[in-house]
Amino acid sequence: MGGMIEETETIDEFLARCSADVEEAVRKAAAAEILPRFRRLAAHEVDQKSGPHDLVTDADRLAELRLTEDLGALLPGSVVVGEEAVHADPAVYRALQDDVPVWIVDPVDGTRQFVHGDDGFCTLVALVQRGVVIASWTYAAARDQFATAVRGQGAFLDGERLFAGPPAPGRDLVVATSHPDYTTDEQKRALRPLWTDGLAPRVCGSAGLEYLAVARGELDAVAFSWEAAWDHAAGLLLVEEAGGTHLTLTGEPFRVTGGNALPFTAARDAATARRVADLLRTAS
């Protein structure tokens, strides 16, 4: 199996042939650059970006470099939009607007957890073309969990099909929301309607793992106030393919290309998504 896209090959045909190669590339990057540093980070391997809560490590940088090289080689003509590359050069993000296939990469989603020795982090990869998320890979390396989704073909965790299903009636909806350490006062106000009867909001950890929890039916919804594509693209497809849905304040699906009416929600079923979105609208 393996190797590069043929000249006349569609993205679907490429995925049918090479999705296992993508999974292998993700696993190798984690094995080489992330897991050896887990609970062994030296002080010089951790830096701040925008502030004390916005951390980056050598694991983030080196895993992204490796994934950029390996994914680009698998699909010649594709572009990689990685969190660390965009931090270095924001213009990289504009590739999401182009027609070429784009790999969206978050090498360590949940860097704060990773730095603190908590296993609640993952590597996120999504393949996007013309703003549509076509496939996604979510690897919680420290937990040895691997979730995948291909549009129209379902979501899977370690080979088992995921079905989110509706919440059990009569209990509070558990909703993971943007962490207060990462939100402005305005964003906190926008999320405040979730603190109401019938809902049980809590702060989110790794966004990728929260999306996986929704896809598994373990979490009812997420509500987030930021739109960085690397945090959302992989998980949104997992949720969709497990039977869930996502809505912005205008009632439209979230677009990875940006320009969304925030905050937005992703939920295990359409009724839950509407309920959360309706509440969020009351703040505006």
UniProtKB/TrEMBL annotation:
Pfam families: Inositol_P. SUPFAM superfamilies: Carbohydrate phosphatase (SSF56655). PROSITE patterns: IMP_1, IMP_2. It comes from the Bacteria. Keywords: Hydrolase, Magnesium, Metal-binding. The keyword Hydrolase applies. Its EC number is 3.1.3.25. It catalyses: a myo-inositol phosphate + H2O = myo-inositol + phosphate. This is inositol-phosphate phosphatase.
